[in-house]
Amino acid sequence: MTKKIILGTRGSELARAQARLVEKAIQAARPDTGIETRIIATQGDKARLLEREAGRKGLFTAEIERALLARDIDIAVHSAKDLPSEMNPDAEIAAVLPRAPVDDVMVSKHPGGFASLPQGAIIATGSVRRKCQLLWKRTDFTVVDLRGNVPTRLRKLVDNDWHSIVLARAGLERLGLSPALDEISFNGSQFFVEILPREIFLPAGGQGIIAVQIRTSNQSMKAIADLVNDRETLLCLRAEREFLRLLQGDCNCPVGVLATIENDKMKLKGQLFTDQSAAPREAEYRGPRDEGERLATRLLNRLRASASAQDHDLAGEHE
C-alpha cells in the first residue's frame, strides 16, 4: 500500500488549484495515503517573453515530466491542452478528472459581449486559434498578444486600453471566478463575462481537462490513477490528441478540436485555419465511443478532402 505520493505541478495559482483537485480525488479514494505537492518551475514560467514563432510545445510541461522520469515526483499534474501531442514513451496519461466546461469566454470592461464591441475594438489573447476565430468573424478587430497566468491577464485588462480578453472558462471557474449574472469581480474591478459559442470558438484539444501523468512502469501509481479516472473524458482526450498528433499540431497551431460522447457514440469535430481572418476548414465525424483514434484519422481525412475540393473549385474559377 502506497503511504505517500508526491505530486508535481507548476506554481501558478491555477496549477495549484488543479493539483488540489487531484489530491482531493486521490484522498477520497485512498484516505490513508499522504500527499505532498512539489512546485516545479517550467520554461514557460521562467520566460518573460515567449516567442510565438518558436511554438509552445512542452513549455509548461517538460520540466515536470523530467522530474517524473527522474523519480523526483510520483505523479505529474498538467493542463491537458499544454501537453505535446507526442510524449516520452516512458510516461503516460493514466487518468483525467471529469472535464470542466470547455468553452472560451470573453471578459470585457463593458457589458454587451461580442456583439456590442465597437469597430476596431482591441481584444487580447495568447492563442493563435482564438485570434483566427476572432478575425474570422470580425476583421475590424485589433488582436494583441496576451501572456501570463489568469490573474495577470485580468490585471493587464485593467491596465491597458483593451476592450476585452478571451480566456478559458474552466480556468476562471477553478480559481473561484465563476460569473454571477454574467459578471465577475477581481481586485476591486468589475468585468462582464460572455460564454462564446462553440460553433465559432471551437476549443483547443484537451481544454478543460486535468491530466494525471505517471511513469509507464509504475504499477502502484497506475492503480491509484485508475481510481480517480473519468473514462469518458479520457476517451475524448485520446481522440483529440490523436487528431493533433496526426495533424502534427500543438497549442501554437490554429486548430480547434472537440470530442463529446452521448448515448455511447462519440462526435469528433475539427476546425483548422489556414489563413488568418479567412473561414476555417471544418468537419465532424461520429462513431463508437471506444474508437476515438480511428475517428481522428477519418476526421482529418475528411478535412483534407474538403480542402482538396475547395482548391479544385478555386482553380475552376480561374480557368
What are the secondary-structure elements, in order, as H or E? EHEHHEEEEHEHEHEEEHHEEEH
* Helix/strand class: alpha/beta
Q: What radius of gyration results from the CA coordinates?
A: 20 Å
Helicity range of the residues?
Answer: 25-40%
Low-confidence runs: 48-55, 311-319
- Intertermini distance: 73 Å
Secondary structure topology:
Blueprint: E1 4-9, H1 13-29, E2 34-39, H2 43-46, H3 62-69, E3 75-79, E4 91-96, E5 104-108, E6 122-125, H4 128-137, E7 142-145, H5 150-159, E8 164-168, H6 169-174, E9 183-186, E10 189-195, E11 210-215, H7 219-228, H8 231-247, E12 255-262, E13 265-272, E14 281-288, H9 292-317
Parallel strand pairs: 1-2, 1-3, 6-7, 6-8
Antiparallel strand pairs: 3-11, 4-11, 5-8, 5-10, 9-10, 12-13, 13-14
Helix pairs in contact: 1-7, 8-9
Please tell me about this protein's structure.
Helices cover 34% and strands 26% of the residues. The protein has helices spanning 13-29, 43-46, 62-69, 128-137, 150-159, 169-174, 219-228, 231-247, 292-317, and strands at 4-9, 34-39, 75-79, 91-96, 104-108, 122-125, 142-145, 164-168, 183-186, 189-195, 210-215, 255-262, 265-272, 281-288. The strands form 3 sheets. The protein has a 6-stranded mixed beta sheet, with helices on both faces.
Give the gist of this structure:
The protein has helices spanning 13-29, 43-46, 62-69, 128-137, 150-159, 169-174, 219-228, 231-247, 292-317; strands spanning 4-9, 34-39, 75-79, 91-96, 104-108, 122-125, 142-145, 164-168, 183-186, 189-195, 210-215, 255-262, 265-272, 281-288.
